[in-house]
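From the shared-data thread, chain only:
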Amino acid sequence: MMHPDTELRYINDQIGYGVFATKFIPKGTIVWVLDDLDQVLEPSFVEKLDPLRKQEVQKYSFRNQFGQYILCWDKARYVNHSFHATCVATMYDLELAARDIHPGEELTDDYGTLNLDEPFDCFPEAGTDRSRVMPDDLLRYYRQWDEIAAGAFEHFNHVKQPLKHLIRPEHREKLNAIMEHRMPLDSVIQLYYKPPSKK
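Structure, as tokens:
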């Protein structure tokens, strides 16, 4: 589920829709969390879909570390890519605001964290030499994303968290230990999924 202070807006014909902040969302806020309305689809199920539905699932979902397709039930499926993403992935089925997000700003992910099936060509962005998202970007950039996530988690207990009650039970104890500096943050490299080779 996306943060409640967001809305879907049409951007243009090339990009389509995106998710934008309607109020100030401070750094460290949970901006998305996996909840029980999201669909978790096994690869074997997706593979057997008719071409039309398979294409839509692959367009609007991402893959977790187990290779499952996560198809979000709400506007989260419309979060666009940016190499300077305003949101950062974690190992705890949630994303945090990577920095302060101001009203009217778009919430974006770096699609390199999403285990894409195929490379993804991007619009040029200033301040980066990346122009394409690759399926194995997690192996290249995980240290950078871990650093961003660690900085965001420093603010976690000091900001309002309207989605905190949706954190999955298996993550709550670990997150408490991380906040109390009793455990280190898990690296997002563990999100990496390498699909089996096709024969």
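The CA atoms of residues 112 and 137 lie 5 Å apart.
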